[in-house]
């Protein structure tokens, strides 16, 4: 059977959450009848049992040494064989109808790429304020989170994820598809009814209101250095500590 979907998972020390995600992928695969689904875990130099667990659960493992989530996504895509690439964070979980809905979207020639959106696994006032703030940006740009999907040929045409970016590389990735789509009469889509789980572990670790103290620090760093900083992460400690030195 042809490989319709490659689910690519960037992972750094994800032994705790990876089994939940893979189980949800297998359930969604069981509900999908129009092709095979492969799972590729891009192990980003984990120091725990991430790679061992991934292999034991029947996934392919791509070892990615460069400490950058964009590099991890590209590394997973490099060994993927599917017609459609689906990128999802390791601490998430898929809706059971995810592949059926993405398959229908990818059969529409007017759609170049898309997202499923996400829902938060728990709520609080601080979380909801942050969520509403992000939804405003999503409504304005039509760029969402959750499962990000595109055809293999479009991924290759836009050059994949920008490995010089330490943050917002996922937004940049979709913007590149959006610009390519404008030239071809195609557009991004946001699916409804199949939101992925949005893990709140960053809020658990840093507090439910931490975005509002972190955001000004990140803005100052981006204004000073930009988000394209190559392999040198040390001069932007706010970004390096938050995304690349997690408490796990």
Brief digest:
By secondary structure, the protein is α/β, with parallel strands linked by helices.
Beta-strand percentage range: 15-25%
| Counted beta strands | 9
What's the main sheet like?
7 strands, mixed
Report Rg: 17 Å
Separation of the first and last Cα atoms? 38 Å
Low-confidence stretches: none
State the shape. Answer: globular
Tally of alpha and pi helices: 10
The assigned structural class equals alpha/beta
Helix content: 40-55%
Overall pLDDT, averaged?
88
Strand line-up in the sheet with most strands: 3-2-1-4-7-5-8
**Secondary-structure element string:** EHEHEHEHEEHEHHEEHHH
List the keywords.
alpha/beta; 18% strand; single chain; globular; two-stranded parallel ribbon; 10 helices; 248 residues; 7-stranded mixed sheet
